[in-house]
Amino acid sequence: PRLANQIAAGEVVERPASVVKELLENSLDAGASQLDIDVEQGGVRRIKIRDNGTGIMKDDLSLALSRHATSKIITLDDLEAVRTLGFRGEALASISSVSRMHLTSQAEGESEAWRVEAEGKDMATAVRPASHPQGTTIDVRDLFFNTPARRKFLRTEKTEFTHLEEVVKRLALSRYETGFRLSHNGKQVYDLRPVTDQLHAEHRLATLLGKKFIENSLTLDVEAAGLRLWGWIGLPTFSRSQADLQYFFVNGRVVKDKLVAHAVRQAYRDVLYNGRHPTFVLYLELDPATVDVNVHPTKHEVRFRDGRLVHDFLFSRIHKVIADVRP
Ligand code: ADP
Ligand code: MG
Hints:
By secondary structure, the chain is of the alpha+beta class. It folds into 2 domains: 2-192, Histidine kinase-like ATPase, C-terminal domain (Heat Shock Protein 90, 2-Layer Sandwich); 210-325, Ribosomal Protein S5, domain 2 (2-Layer Sandwich). 34% of the residues lie in helices and 26% in strands. The strands form 3 sheets. Strands 1, 2, 3, 4, 5, 6, 7, 8 and 9 form a 9-stranded mixed β-sheet that branches. Strand 3 (100-106) and strand 4 (113-119) form a beta hairpin. Helix 1 packs across helix 5. Adenosine-5'-diphosphate (ADP) binds next to helix 2 and helix 5. GO terms for molecular function: endonuclease activity.
């Protein structure tokens, strides 16, 4: 089974950034309000993530590392309406099969913490007592130490860290009520406090995307036909040569979707020339039953039940905002 995990790891674990994504999503699913992320050497040497979520019970610790051990789906109906970020029960098994992992946790309502360790294919079965406040710490060292072929595909420390930071950024932009602290090689990159109001949301946005974006954007918040769209739209004058400041979230998940991209491009059509790209941080909220966000475990596609409705809504609302400020 550990070999199967290594094979599955190829799907889920491509680089340090994908490890961070899976671990942070687990922490968020566990209801954590504070996430501390410490990485070394772009995450290749070490990724340590600590959360204050519900934790994992002693008896479930080893289980959490085995394949298809998910606590998130109980019935087929659940599968239909997954609201949690992860649900396949593959991530921890996959990551631990290609690294040296320590998993330490104290479950809610318990007074003791416990730890399991796994090293590549060798899984430590013994659960040992540990010291930890409520929540979970996952410490992943030496990613791909036992899969040299995969290690070869890793880029420079700087590139790997850039990918990793992008993952943290996206999650931080989708969970304002959660605190995120990130450090690289012992140096703090940022410490984002939990946010409850618009002013502090903009502060977080400025930290992550630059003050210039906030100063050159408009806010919107509109609702129609069960769809809500809110966020920040960069002024046409703040367009970029790269599509690097485009964030679109559907029900709290980052999405890269053709239909969405098309609607936004159309909305900016009359004001953008010379291949420049719009900038935006937008949140679409709709009934989860009308959208499938789990088309692929790592790709960011979605399938809307009524694509036409969503497209027209996005286009018309964004176009209206832009038309109002047209030079
Ligand atoms: P999935 O998220 O798809 O269920 P994972 O392999 O990512 O599968 O995690 C396996 C299980 O381990 C989860 O279902 C959850 O019960 C538990 N788990 C993992 N990380 C955490 C965490 N940070 N806090 C609490 N439970 C966790
Ligand atoms: Mg998961």
